[in-house]
Amino acid sequence: xxxxxxxTLTELQANPGETPKDIGPITANDLDAVYGIPVEVxxxxxxxxxxxxxxxxxxxxxxxxxxxxxxxxxxxxxxNRLVARGExxxxxxxxxxxxxxxxxxxxxx
Length: 109
Fold this sequence. Notes:
There is one protein chain. By secondary structure, this protein is α+β, with helices and mostly antiparallel strands. The chain has a single domain (9-102), classed as Roll (Surface presentation of antigens (SPOA)), CATH 2.30.330. Helix content is 15%, strand content 27%. It has helices at residues 9-14, 32-35, 52-57, and strands spanning 41-44, 74-78, 81-91, 94-102. A four-stranded antiparallel beta sheet has the order 1-2-3-4, with no helix packed on it. The protein is elongated and about 60 Å long.
């Protein structure tokens, strides 16, 4: 492969997590194009399951019991993939999240 040739996405997907030996190590400058890509971050306080008929009866002020306890860590998802757990914090007049645990996942799933 000459200096001006680039790898295709298919070639990079063939060995995920491996740097192709022909191009050398990837540096921070090589990742500049990736930094601007938007991702969706979701913090899940808990979940509940109910029948549609019960859901339709809910009104203002209704309380839905979640499957988590007070003080239990919340799940943090990036693009629908669990990446961390954390705690809810207040930052000025807004809610925020402090990450307390990074979840390492198997890249094959």
